[in-house]
Design brief:
By secondary structure, the chain is α+β, with helices and mostly antiparallel strands. It is built from 20 helices and 15 strands. Helix 5 runs parallel beside helix 7, helix 12 packs antiparallel against helix 19 and helix 13 packs across helix 16. InterPro entries: DnaQ (IPR006054), GIY-YIG_endonuc (IPR000305), GIY-YIG_endonuc_sf (IPR035901), GIY-YIG_UvrC_Cho (IPR047296), Ribonucl_H (IPR013520), RNaseH-like_sf (IPR012337), RNaseH_sf (IPR036397), UvrABC_protein_C (IPR050066).
Length: 584
């Protein structure tokens, strides 16, 4: 059956706050601090700096200069003195680096740091900050050497040394291996390189930094796909020439996230293949991150984009249920009905369901054969009966009432209430196997115990939310106001943001009036996919989220599976350690 296309009108979103220099800032409006260091040589270890020169510029205008010698506290190698002209006598009265750093860090605040072969200079500065207890502000960094490699051809300059580039761009200052002179020369080189970036459609500081890095021709050619996208939370869709969705993603800032696909940081092979096929990017703005996450899940489930790996087939969940008849057994099914006596799920795969079923078979004497048993006709028993693993209902060794008490009821109670009898039985078997030094068998049982706990905890957690007809919740928005969500039977029915300084009630009333109608349905996920309900649960359970209104109480069983979460964590951690040990 073809998947139904999901369509939903967009809601207005909020522009996220941006720290530091905005990557969308035009180059002509960006404040640069061009820095150069002279050192004693060697690797950055927190010391070794002998001179700092920095020039602050914006729009071609010089705004400030910082220049100082620095006493490194160690002798100056003779070849450094020959190269730079800096002697130990010159450095003796100079301040140490820990006295220079506060002024330097204040000088570079709210600016883009520029250097020629920037990793060298930045490495020394970061090491000095770390050694002397100063927080490195982690500014955006532009490397003129790397930028020159991308902009200039071999026919234009034989190499990318600072002296060569300064001569090519006719810098007013000649590099002399002194910090301030080299910084001033780098300023002229920077301006020359910026003048060449226009032909590459590089207009912002973020684009310039990424252009200096190694990006593929496809990324460079398709970079324009990120133009004009909103700076708000929502969903983005990469579409092919025939308008097919290729990839669906979500972000709190659509424009910034989509631009990241065209940077050197994006190295995934499948994404490179996707970018080659993409012809446009569609943006769907959302009220807040929760709506964006939910809409992403629905779009992926509806269209199954070829380059998305997760959440593509929500309809493939399976359930573990008790069959009908006098002697029920466990069966893995695709759907459950209101007539089913007891069931557990949903499971993402048949393998996960079978692992949980094996755990129940180890704990309670549910029959494992697939025969349809009759109260009148006897069927020959299998080997499990001879081993004492089955009460042999096929030979009528146990009455339906007795079978129900020892096998069926423990499973039914574990799914909706107390799983303690099942857990205790599995723990007892694990302890017995460990005492007999049968550790591999004990590890198998531990995995089955984890599968049982994982499924029961998940189902009871989901059922607690999806059984409520309506939940209205609010969370403080970053820009002021409130993020609002209206949830009906575990499905996001409406979302919005109340403006700052305005009471959220009118906005909530509007959301409720236009919200989706959701029927109750059957099971722990009657109206949405398990992933959607779990995303909503995570949002609702955050400390800052406030429950505004509920149509009924939200509660889990006092003796429910949730009390075994610590045990589940221990079992999963033990399994992870064992897997790591085996791979090592």
């Amino acid at each position: 059956m073809a998947a139904q296309e999901y369509l939903q009108p967009a809601l207005a979103g909020l522009d996220p706050a941006v720290d530091g220099v905005d990557p969308a800032l035009p180059l002509y409006a960006t404040t640069f601090v061009v820095v150069d260091l002279e050192t004693t040589g060697g690797a950055p270890d927190g010391g070794g700096i002998t001179e700092i020169g920095a020039v602050k510029v914006r729009g071609g205008e010089e705004l400030g200069v910082l220049a100082t010698l620095v006493n490194p506290g160690v002798p100056i190698p003779p070849f450094i003195t020959v190269l730079t002209g800096i002697t130990e006598a010159m450095l003796l009265p100079a301040p140490p680096i820990e006295q220079v750093l506060p002024s330097f860090l204040e000088f570079i605040s709210d600016a883009v740091l520029v250097a020629h072969n920037a990793p060298y200079d930045v490495g020394f500065l970061k090491a000095a900050c770390a050694r002397h207890g100063y927080r490195w502000p982690n500014p955006r960094v532009l490397d003129t050497a790397a930028l020159a490699r991308r902009v200039l051809l071999r026919d234009e300059v034989p190499n990318r040394k600072l002296g060569t580039l300064a001569a090519y761009f006719r810098a007013a200052t000649t590099p002399t291996h002194r910090a301030l002179d080299d910084a001033r020369a780098t300023v002229d080189v920077l301006h020359g390189l910026i003048g060449r970036l226009g032909g590459h459609r590089v207009d912002t500081i973020g684009e310039a930094i990424e252009f200096a890095r190694a990006v593929t021709p496809t990324q460079r050619r398709k970079r324009h796909l990120a133009d004009g996208l909103p700076r708000s939370p929502g969903v983005y869709i990469f579409r092919a020439a025939d308008d097919r969705p290729l990839y669906v993603g979500t972000s709190r800032d659509i424009a910034t996230r989509v631009r990241s696909y065209f940077t050197a940081a994006e190295k995934r092979a499948r994404i490179s293949e996707m970018l080659a096929a993409a012809e446009r990017v569609e943006a769907l703005e959302c009220a807040h991150s929760l709506e964006a996450e939910v809409r992403e899940l629905r779009l992926i489930g509806a269209h199954a984009p070829p380059y998305n790996r997760r959440s593509k087939y929500p309809e493939r969940v399976v359930w573990l249920k008790l069959t009908d008849g006098p002697y029920p057994r466990l069966s893995v099914v695709r759907e459950i009905s209101p007539d089913d006596r007891a069931y557990l799920g949903p499971f993402s795969s048949r393998r996960a369901a079978e692992l949980a079923a094996a755990g129940f078979h180890d704990a309670v004497p549910l029959r494992q054969c697939t025969h349809r048993l009759s109260l009148r006709t006897v069927t020959p028993a299998c080997a499990l009966a001879e081993l004492g693993r089955c009460p042999a209902p096929c030979e009528h060794r146990i009455t339906p009432q007795e079978y129900d008490a020892v096998a069926v009821t423990p499973f039914a109670e574990a799914t909706t209430g107390d799983a303690k009898p099942v857990v205790d039985a599995l723990l007892a078997r694990i302890e017995a196997l460990a005492a007999g030094q049968r550790y591999e068998e004990a590890a198998v049982l531990r995995s089955r115990l984890a599968a049982v706990l994982r499924a029961t905890v998940r189902m009871q957690r989901l059922a607690a939310l999806t059984g409520i007809a309506e939940v209205a919740a609010a969370r403080p928005a970053e820009g002021g106001g409130w993020e609002l969500a209206l949830v009906r039977h575990g499905r996001l029915a409406g979302a919005g943001v109340s403006p700052p300084g305005v009471h959220p009630r009118p906005t909530l009333a509007t959301i409720r009036a236009t919200a989706e109608t959701v029927s109750a349905g059957h099971g722990p996920v009657p109206a949405a996919t398990p992933e959607e309900s779990e995303r909503i649960l995570s949002w609702l359970e955050r400390p800052e989220t406030r429950l505004v209104e509920m149509s009924a109480g939200w509660a889990s069983p006092v003796s429910g599976a949730g009390r075994f979460r610590d045990l589940l964590t221990k079992a999963e951690n033990a399994a992870s350690r064992q897997l790591w040990s085996e791979r090592s």
